[in-house]
Every structure is written in structure tokens, then in C-alpha cells.
Amino acid sequence: MKKRNALLAALLLAAGTLFGCSGGEKPASTEGTTKTDKGTIKIGGLFDITGATGDVGTPYAEGEKAYIEYINSKGGVNGYKIELVGQDYAYKIPEAQKLYQKFKSSDKVAAILGWGTGDTEALRQQVAADNIPYFSASYSENLKNLKESPLNFLTAASYSDQARSVLKWIKDNHQGGTPKVALIYNDTAFGKSPIQDAKEFAKEIGVEIVDEQIVDLKALDATSQLLNMQKKNPDYAIIQETWGATATILKDAKKLGIKTQFIGLNWATGEGLLPIAGDAAEGFIGVVTHAFPYEELPGMNEIKEYLASKGEKLEDKNQKFVQGWVTAKILVEGIKLADDPTTGEGIRKGIEKINGLDLGGLAAPVTFTPENHAGTNQIRLAKVENGKFKVFTDYIGY
């Protein structure tokens, strides 16, 4: 009897071991669980590191990566770890489309942190069909159209809203007659995005658009364009470029003795402009959608904490790093509010619950609803004084 009982016990033990290895119906053990035991939520990332907008794209991507690493160090999101699957697409639309297919089919991402206007607009029908929420670094007005872009979300004022706010500020502050404005932009979807809206709004409020000039994103000389612009003698010129082309414009304008007040939209603005523009940047006004690292703001504490853990310092980062950090933070907030954060549909509904999200001064508060995917239309303005951007307005609109 003892031998029979011993044999039975051994058989039961073996069966139990096999069952445990199979993972069949046995509930998972809760022993040794951590805050991220529910699994992983994958987020796709389209980065421009080596392309035409890599000057601003590189620190922006670093900010996105940093925030995801930071939130994972805090235990993830509601029991999930966030994995950012990112890759440089060099600002090439075909490469963006190729990577999108990889993100969707192989990586099975639940949302995407995108980049440029051309690629974001090219992908919007696909992300809508695939129900994948998409946070782009493009603030194209077209992305506010929910019929055409139902899965796109804008985390800052659109380029058109930025231009409208600048034109309203010009109208309110100009002394002496009707203000005359020129528009300088590049021949890409990004460059052209706000132009028609700016012209229509200027006409509406009584500002005269007197000239338009095309300057390539990689331009090293803008002399001919500025000479043509000078003939129209504009009081102001609104620039829709990134740092490199903006620096070229400012240096050539200084060389030519042009007195026009240059005002750049958000990608023309930031610390990276200053070393390449030099003293030609003095007096330049820029649209500020996100805070500078040297501003004393509550939201900067998380960034300081993260950087300290990496042995890095806040003064080594720039505004575009903050911009990427904030964009990832807003997406993570949508994941937190999602009933099912593992699906695009669930995350979309979570994002649409964000109401007046306080970003600690790093950017204007954002709100999303099922009827409105434009988080804000608010900007600030800053002026370069003694080689440093100094913010001189509160958040303003039009």
C-alpha cells in the first residue's frame, strides 16, 4: 500500500509539473509581481535624425525617448510597460510609409509618435483605417479636419493658428498705418501649410501681405529672395522654416542691411538657432509653443529628475527636447485614461477624455474631445536679447 501511495504521489507531482510548464489553464502566479506585470504597450516612433529637418528632429526624438524611459522607471502606466519602437526615416515620405507598415504589421503598435507634415498627411487615411492614434510633430491645419484625419491629434497650436496669432499681435502692436507683411517658407507640405490661411486671416483683420519668398530648408544663401522681398519694403516677415534656413535668412538680411522685423513660427524658434545665426539673431521674434529649459516652471522638475538619473544636466538640453518630452507625456496621459490601453480604439477614447491637462507650464494646457482633436490654439512670443530667447507675452491666441 505504501508503495502504491508513493507511486500515485509521484505521478500527481509529475502531472502538476507538466501542467505548470504548459501555461494551459493554470492561473499565473502573483508571487514577485511588479508594477509592469500586465505586459507591454508598443508605440511607434518616426524620427528625423539625418534628414532635412534633423536639426530640430534630433532633440525632439531624444525628448520622446527620454519621457518613455522616465515613465517606465516609475512603474509604467497602469501596470503596463511602454516600449517605443522608433526609427530614423530621414524626412522621406516613402520611408515613412514603409516604416508605418512595419509598425502596424510586425511591431503591432497601439499608437504612433510621428514627425513631418508631408508624411503625416500621406499616412492619415491609413491610420484612420487601422484605428491607430497618431501624434505628429506636424501642426498642419489639415490635421484638424476630423472627416479626413479622425485619428490625428495636435498637441500644440496649428501652424495656421500660430500665423493667425502672430498677425493679430502685429495688428494690435504696429504703429503707423497698415502693417505690411512678407511670408518666407520652404516648398514642402510643412512650409506651405499655413500660407493660405495666413493670407486669408491677414485680409480679414486689415494686414497687407505684400510678398512671398521660397527658401529651401537646406539653403545656405537667401540673398536673391531677400533682395526681391526688400523691394516690397515689408514691416514684418513671418518665417516658416527650421533653424538652418532661418539662420541663413537672418544672416543674409543683416548683411544686406534689411530692417524688416523677422518673426518665426515654432520650428524656426529655439536655442539651436542662436549659434548658427550669431548676432544676426538679435531682435528676432519667435513663436513659443513649448518652454525653454531655463524657465523656472513646475513641469521642469520631472525632466531634472530624469536627467539627474542619467548624469546629465538641464542646461545641456534645448526647447525641442522639451517639446518631444511633452508630446510623449500627453500620449501617455491618454493611455492612462483608456479603458483598454492595449488597442488603438481604447487609446483614442482615452485621449478624448483629456480635459485641460496641466503640463506644468511646459506647454499650454490641452483638451481633446470626440469632436475636436486640436489640443490648443495658444502660443507665447519670445525675442532674442543678448543672445538668448526671452519670453515677453503670456499665452495668446487670435
Automatic annotation (TrEMBL):
Residues 40-387 form the Leucine-binding protein domain. Pfam families: Peripla_BP_6 (PF13458). It comes from the Bacteria. Keywords: Amino-acid transport, Signal, Transport. Residues 1-20 form the signal peptide. The keyword Cytoplasm does not apply. Coiled coil: none annotated. GO terms for biological process: amino acid transport. InterPro entries: Leu-bd, Leu_Ile_Val-bd, Peripla_BP_I. PANTHER family: BLR6548 PROTEIN. Belongs to the leucine-binding protein family. This is Branched-chain amino acid transport system substrate-binding protein. It comes from Anoxybacteroides voinovskiense. The lineage of its organism: Bacteria, Bacillati, Bacillota, Bacilli, Bacillales.
